[in-house]
User: Which sequence fits this backbone?
């Protein structure tokens, strides 16, 4: 049965172990069908509306063809078999309120990943998802008292049905794209956040997503509502064991940033390189509000992810910082979309990618300005660094500007790890490997400096880990 | 001169070096003792920068014959970082920018590498502040990215700053005076003079006599077509200033022709 598979070689991936002792409570049979969707809904004891939502989405999934390279990395070039996936793996009977209530082997995993430690040190709240369900979540009591809701989405459907129903599937409809349909039909877990008007959450809320079971599909569903004038920073991290066969991660993240609010969503994606990471993320930003994506993609086999910002009312500002690193056998197809649907909205997309050891990075972006959206300002900048001859980088910027009165800037650069830079640093006594790390860390510095210190340190460490053996 | 009593720190023996298969250095011989400043002059394209880069171990330059000895050890085929840790320093003619790498962090990493031990932050700060003052440099300078957006003068000063921190025993200065106005030149020269001492050997590569008014050389060499064709005292640079390279080259050419005739 699932969860007791043998590990393959870990390489430099630090998180590639699996819990061999782990026995799930409940698992649907492999593959996807209407019956599996119904079974998931039944196991969760959901209301009828959610069951209908899932079944409608499943219908879209069946109808819609696989994306064929018009947008995104070409999934058809891979032998990902959607019938060889477990769509629901229930890890525990009940969620823990404290870490002590979490089963020992699962708790051990999160301790190895440093989650409880981080919670104590610098977080406002933590949620931990293991395979299909959230096994632990907690938010600081003072924030609960202010009306901040931070829970898993399944609990939110039960405990805050009106709020969920009002927004769920409105930012990313179930027929938005093939993988949004998939997620909408089999979703499980993910975070639900509501921040009341004017409330500023002082420290980040963090969710950690861990896949343990081989051939598992993780389909978390996150919904964040920042009410007027509120402020929240959400951070997600993800890892998985290294298996010889593939796993699938296909999340949907919907965010509503109301007038004058500020939401920052930070991702440090570090899946093992057998994970397909096909994620749809979108936020709607209203008047004078600010929505930011900081999207770091280091792991996975194929990532297709383009966090989107819809600027809905004047004064809305969107920012996307995207960082991708692709090593052997990896393709990071990442970027961002800014959709200017209102006048006097502004956006910045800043993308940095590094490819090495035969890896491939693609920047894929969309900038759209609707007719009548006067006074829009947008800057897109993408820089790629290629570390060796075998590696590859491409840029696919799509611009649809249907208004004259706009200011748009676009810059792109591709550079190779320069012999002259290496020689310069080495001429001061720094070893070749350290010099290469310095250059790469310098290259990503504009993005890393936007992260809270703890994550910046972690990201630099992950990059260095990836760089081991890359040079010299 | 009482050079004989000083310890030899650096010897280049019959050095031949090529770039992309083209031979640029055709048998250079050079000996530098501790405490000496050698000026290496020569017209454009004579091989001055090739010699500097070859001494530092740039991978683009292949040594095809001869060797480089530093403190008695053959370093001809060592990597640049090893040479640097042993105490060889090159001040670049065109220091390259490294975006995102903060000068201060880079300096500390370099110093750690040079000393091959950790450098406590407090000690480093103190040393850095003193050196910045010595070179009349703004302390904010070390917060900037390595050579990024530096003016010509700032780049050259940054090179001298690195030299002062790393305390090399052989410093090769590749046209550190070029592109500087007279005030910047004086500051850079003062910096070099402040670091000068009985332990340090200097090879000062320059196009012009100008810097030698401020940094007095002990020995002057003229490099031409990949060979040192004349060596003399400080008066040689003044002679070059007055007469240009032509007369020395003429002096050298028949001798070379004669040597070739003898060999044939």
Assistant:
């Amino acid at each position: 049965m699932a969860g007791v598979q043998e590990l393959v070689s870990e390489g430099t991936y630090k998180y590639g172990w699996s819990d061999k002792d782990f026995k799930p409570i409940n698992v649907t049979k492999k593959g996807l069908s209407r019956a599996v969707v119904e079974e998931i809904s039944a196991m969760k004891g959901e209301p009828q509306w959610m069951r209908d939502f899932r079944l409608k989405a499943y219908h879209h999934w069946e109808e819609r063809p696989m994306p064929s390279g018009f947008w995104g990395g070409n999934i058809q070039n891979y032998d990902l078999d959607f019938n060889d996936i477990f769509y629901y793996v229930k890890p525990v009977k009940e969620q823990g309120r404290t870490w002590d209530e979490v089963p020992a082997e699962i708790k051990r995993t999160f301790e190895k990943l440093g989650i409880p430690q981080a919670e104590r040190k610098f977080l406002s709240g933590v949620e931990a998802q293991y395979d299909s369900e959230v096994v632990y979540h907690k938010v600081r009591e003072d924030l609960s008292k202010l009306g901040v809701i931070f829970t898993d989405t399944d609990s939110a459907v039960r405990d805050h049905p009106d709020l969920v129903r009002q927004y769920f599937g409105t930012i990313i409809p179930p027929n938005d794209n093939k993988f949004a349909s998939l997620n909408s039909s089999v979703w499980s877990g993910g975070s639900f956040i509501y921040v009341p008007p004017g409330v500023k959450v002082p420290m980040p809320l963090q969710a950690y997503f861990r896949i343990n079971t081989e051939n598992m599909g993780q389909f978390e569903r996150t919904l964040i509502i920042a009410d007027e004038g509120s402020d929240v920073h959400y951070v997600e991290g993800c890892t998985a064991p290294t298996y010889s066969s593939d796993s699938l991660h296909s999340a949907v993240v919907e965010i509503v940033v109301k007038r004058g609010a500020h939401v920052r969503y930070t991702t440090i994606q570090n899946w093992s390189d057998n994970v397909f990471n096909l994620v749809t993320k979108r936020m709607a930003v209203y008047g004078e509000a600010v929505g930011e994506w900081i999207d770091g993609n280091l792991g996975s086999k194929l990532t297709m992810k383009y966090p989107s910002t819809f600027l809905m009312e004047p004064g809305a500002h969107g920012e996307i910082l995207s960082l991708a690193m692709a090593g052997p056998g990896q393709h990071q197809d990442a970027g961002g979309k800014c959709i200017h649907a209102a006048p006097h909205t502004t956006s910045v997309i800043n993308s940095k990618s590094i490819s090495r050891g035969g890896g491939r990075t693609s920047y894929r972006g969309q900038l759209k300005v609707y007719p009548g959206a006067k006074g829009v300002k947008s800057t897109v900048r993408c820089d790629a660094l290629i570390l060796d001859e075998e590696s590859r980088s491409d840029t696919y910027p799509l611009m649809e500007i249907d208004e004259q009165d706009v200011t748009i800037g676009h810059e792109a650069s591709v550079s190779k790890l320069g012999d002259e830079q290496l020689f310069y640093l080495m001429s001061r006594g720094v070893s070749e490997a350290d010099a290469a790390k310095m250059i790469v860390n310098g290259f990503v510095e504009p993005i890393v400096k936007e992260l809270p210190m703890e994550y910046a340190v972690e990201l630099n460490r992950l990059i260095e880990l990836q760089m081991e053996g890359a040079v010299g | 001169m009482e050079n004989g009593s000083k310890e030899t720190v650096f010897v280049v023996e019959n050095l031949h070096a090529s770039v992309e298969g083209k031979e640029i250095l055709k048998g250079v011989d050079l000996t530098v003792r501790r405490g000496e400043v050698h000026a290496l002059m020569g017209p454009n394209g004579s091989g001055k920068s090739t010699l500097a880069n070859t001494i530092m171990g740039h991978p683009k330059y292949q040594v095809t014959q001869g060797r480089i000895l530093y403190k008695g050890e053959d370093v001809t085929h060592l990597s640049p970082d090893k040479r640097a840790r042993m105490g060889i320093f090159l001040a670049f003619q065109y220091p390259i920018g490294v975006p995102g790498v903060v000068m201060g962090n880079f300096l500390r990493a370099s110093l750690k590498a040079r000393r091959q031990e950790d450098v406590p932050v407090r000690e480093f700060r103190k040393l850095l502040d003193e050196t910045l003052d010595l070179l009349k440099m703004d302390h904010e300078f070390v917060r900037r990215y390595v050579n990024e957006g530096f003016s010509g003068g700032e780049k050259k000063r940054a090179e001298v700053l690195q030299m002062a921190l790393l305390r090399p025993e052989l410093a090769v200065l590749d046209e550190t005076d070029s592109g500087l106005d007279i005030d910047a030149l004086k500051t850079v020269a003062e910096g070099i003079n402040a670091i000068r001492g009985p332990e340090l050997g200097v090879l000062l590569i320059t196009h012009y006599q100008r810097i030698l008014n401020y940094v007095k050389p002990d020995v002057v060499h003229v490099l031409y077509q990949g060979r040192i064709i004349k060596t003399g005292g400080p008066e040689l640079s003044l002679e070059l200033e007055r007469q240009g390279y032509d007369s020395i080259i003429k002096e050298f050419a028949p001798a070379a022709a004669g040597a070739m005739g003898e060999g044939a």
Remarks:
- The radius of gyration of chain B is 19 Å.
- DSSP finds eight helices and twelve strands in chain B.
- Confidence is low (pLDDT under 50) at residues 256-264 of chain B.
